[in-house]
Design a protein that fits this description.
Distance between the termini: 33 Å
Shape: globular
Number of helices: 11
Order of helices and strands: EHEEEHEHEHEHEHEHEHEHHEH
Helix content: 25-40%
Radius of gyration: 19 Å
Largest sheet: 8 strands, parallel, barrel
Structural class: alpha/beta
Length: 343
């Protein structure tokens, strides 16, 4: 199904986009105020174009429809959302141990909401390269008190749980989480797909090859952007076949997971290719090694300015989830983008 992909090009924004659409020289891009004027037509390993949108062959029009059709919000508020990262692990690459205890995690969460987080993503297992494996029970012992505390102190806040284990998923949903964010795209735990098929929550499928312990051995791609989209597309289809409706699904290209520095840069440059999947996009670049390499900043905690700049690459989607540690700066970046581009 995913042999044919269309890559949008020639973007316009705001009033210019609307005028180009009216004149018939551009098409609207999914949920946004953006429009695109040309495309690359990708079939297998070959691409042709750029092709003006008005000259796309008839046989490609069903694929083009993926780029112009509005994308479901997966049960979350419409428009761009800042997703605040709340790691309750002692070995996170960026904030190791900072929110390991429930009290400090709850304080940080409350600040993130004040700073503009639309949803909080709570994780109890580090998935950095080579991270130590923890049992699902250990993971829940980290996540559970924070999730339950947040439900009591901020009953209206939207909560996501970053886990690949069905035990944690089931308990988190019972405790009030509304999103499950799985770095394995529901491939790690065989019980995850049937469990989530019986729920109504949003589900994030992230691209990764191998495991956090082995992923650095799986970085061979023919075309990293196309391969990631196609492999994520296969996980989307597996979820739908298992009974999870497409309207609940979100996709994350997995920056830093089984990708080299060069591949991460190419993937970010071509992030809009993810529009082919017809799902809401999660962009999770916060403080990652690629930001440090591009900026020369060794300390992950000092990479927030680079994170904002990189994350804004996803704004043309119109309704991205921007997953970050520093919520306030990302929320400012979103407001500036919207003010300038007519969002």
């Amino acid at each position: 199904m995913w042999r044919r992909l269309v890559e949008p090009m020639g973007f316009l924004f705001g009033p210019m986009a609307q005028e180009a659409i009216r004149q018939g020289v551009a098409l609207p891009f999914q949920n946004s105020t953006a429009a695109f004027t040309a495309v690359l037509l990708i079939e297998g390993d070959s691409a042709s174009g750029p092709v003006p949108v008005g000259a796309v062959p008839h046989a490609w029009l069903p694929v083009m429809q993926r780029l112009v059709s509005p994308v479901p919000d997966a049960g979350l508020p419409a428009g761009p959302l800042v997703m605040g990262i709340l790691n309750t692990t002692p070995d996170s690459f960026s904030c190791a141990g900072q929110h390991y205890h429930a009290g400090s995690a709850l304080q940080a969460a409350e600040q993130m909401v004040r700073d503009g987080a639309g949803v909080l993503d709570i994780g109890g297992e580090s998935t950095r390269p080579g991270a130590a494996v923890v049992s699902p029970q250990q993971e829940w012992e980290r996540v559970g008190p924070v999730l339950e505390g947040l439900r009591q102190s901020m009953p209206d806040v939207l909560l996501s749980v970053d886990t690949r284990n069905s035990l944690v998923m089931e308990r988190a949903l019972a405790a009030g989480a509304c999103v499950i964010n799985d770095v394995s795209a529901l491939g790690h735990d065989p019980a995850a797909l049937p469990l989530l098929a019986e729920q109504q929550c949003g589900v994030v499928l992230m691209h990764m090859r191998g495991t956090p312990q082995t992923m650095e051995q799986h970085t061979h791609y023919t075309d990293v952007a196309c391969d990631v989209v196609r492999e994520l597309g296969q996980r989307v289809e597996a979820a739908v076949e298992a009974g999870i409706t497409r309207e609940r699904l979100m996709v994350d290209p997995g920056f830093g997971f089984a990708k080299t520095q060069e591949q991460n840069v190419v993937l970010l440059r071509r992030i809009l290719l993810l529009a082919n999947l017809g799902c809401r996009v999660v962009c999770a670049l916060s403080r990652k090694r690629m930001i440090g390499t591009l900026t020369g900043v060794a300390d992950p905690a000092l990479r927030d300015s680079g994170t904002v700049a990189a994350s804004l690459m996803a704004m043309p989607f119109g309704n991205p989830l921007l997953r970050v540690h520093a919520v306030a700066s990302m929320a400012q970046g979103v407001r500036v983008w919207q003010g300038v581009q007519g969002g």
